Amino acid sequence: MFKQFFKDSAIYWLGITLSQGIGLILLPIYARVFSPAMYGVIDILLIMAKLVYLVVALEISQALARFYTEIKSKDDRVKYASTALWFAGTMYTLFGLIAWWFADPLSNLVLGVEGQTVIFKIAVLTMWAEGLFYLLQGQLRYRLQATAFAVVSICNVAVSVGTVLILLLVFKLGVVAVFCGQFIGALAGLGLAFYFSRDDYRPVFDRAKCREMLSFSIPLVPSSIGIFVTLYIDRIMIKWLMSIGDLGIYAVGYRVASIMLLLSVGVQAALTPLIYNYYQKPDTPQELAKIFRYFTAFALLVVIGLSIFAPEILMILTTPEYYGASQLIACLAPAVLLYRMYIFAPGLSIAKQTKKIAVINIGSALLNIGLNLLLIPRIGLMGAGIATLLSSVVAFSAQMILSQQQYFVPHAWRNLTLALLFSIGIVWVGAQVNMDLWTDIMLKMMLLGMAAGGFILMGLLRVEELKSARLLLTHFQIANKI
Known about the structure:
Layout: H1 2-20, H2 22-25, H3 27-33, H4 36-55, H5 60-68, H6 74-101, H7 103-111, H8 117-142, H9 146-170, H10 175-196, H11 207-217, H12 220-241, H13 244-257, H14 259-278, H15 284-308, H16 310-317, H17 329-340, H18 347-350, H19 354-379, H20 381-406, H21 413-432, H22 437-457, H23 463-481
Helix pairs in contact: 1-9, 1-14, 4-8, 4-12, 4-13, 5-6, 5-8, 5-11, 6-8, 6-11, 8-9, 8-10, 9-10, 12-13, 12-19, 12-20, 13-17, 14-15, 14-17, 15-17, 15-21, 15-22, 17-20, 19-20, 21-22
C-alpha cells in the first residue's frame, strides 16, 4: 500500500491541484480586474455551489466509494455506478430547474444585491455540470485509474481557464466570464470522464442498491452540512455582519490559505480507496502512521511558509486593496489543513458509524457559528479566522480520538506535538520580522530551514527513511524506463 500510495498520490495531486486550484491560478487576474465587492460576489456563489454539491445528490458519491471498492462482481459494480449516476443526474436537474424558475428572489437572497439574475442563472448551470463532473471524476479514483483522473482534471482546467481568459479579457464579460468558463470546462471534463469509465454505466437503475447507498449516505448529509458550515460560515457571517467588500478581502486570504487544500487533496484521493481496500491487512496501520508523520511534517513546513511569507505572497498576487488579508493566513492555512486531515482518522468510516461523524461535524459547525458571532463584532476579519481555526482543531481532535477506538493506528503523538509547538514558535518569530524586503526574505528563509532541521531532530522526519525513499524512487524511475 505504501508504494502505491506515493505513486497514486503524486498523480492525483497533479490532477486535483490543477482542478481545484483554478481560483488560485486566476487570482492575480481577478484581483486586478474585480473590486473586493465583485470578488465577494464570485466567492459567495462559489460557496453556494459547495453546498449544492453536498446536499442535492444526498452524498451518494460517498456511498458509491464505500460499496464499489468491496464488490468484485462486474455486474454489481455496473449496477451501483449506474444507479448512482442516474440518481445524481435526476437530482441535479431538478435543482437546476427549480433554481432557474426562482432565480430572481434566490439571487437577491444569496447575493444581497439586485440585478444579478443573469450571473446567478449561469452559476446554477455551472453547478449542474460540475456536480455530475465531480461524480464521474470521483469514479475514476474508485477504479484506481489515477492517470485517467489526472488527464480529465487537466482537460477541465485547460478549457475552463482558457475560456475565462478569453471571455474576461477579450469580450469584457466580467463575472459572467468566470461562470461561463467553469461551465464549459465542466462539460469538457464530464465527457472525458464518462469516456474513461464508460464500461461502468448502463441504462440501469437498481432501486434496492439505491436504497442501500442512500442508507449509508443520507446520515452523511447533515455531517457534510456541518463541515460546510464550519468551513464557510466565517465568510457568510462576514457578509452579514460586515460587508461584501470585506468578504472579498477575506476570500483572497482564504484563497492563498487554500494552498493547504491543494496539498492534501492528492493524498486524500490516493489514500481513501487504498484504506478501504487494504485496511484488513496487518501492516496497514503502521504504514498509515508513517504516511501521516511524513504528511504532517511537509504540511507544517507549508503552513509556516505561507504564514511568514504572507505579505510577500499578496504583493505578488494582488493589489494594495487586498493586502489586509495577509494577517489572516496564519489562522486559515492550518484550519484548511485540519478539515482535510480526517482521512487519517478512518476508523468511523471503516466501522460505518456515519452518525458519529455527523455529530462531530454538526457540533463543530455550531461551535464555529458561536465563535464567529462572538469574535467578528469585536476583532473583525481576524475574529472569523480564529473562529475557523479553533473549530477545526476541535473537529479533528474528536475525529481522531473516536477513530482510534475503532481502528487503532500507532501514531507518534509525542513527536507530532513537539513539532506543532515548534511550528507555532517559528510562525510567531516570523511575524515579528519587519525590516526591508530582502532582509525579511532572508530571515524568513532561515526560519523555514530551522523548521525543517527541527523536524529531523524531533524524529518527525527520519534520515534513514528519507534515504530509503530516495532509493525506492530511483528503482521506480529505472523500472519505468525499462
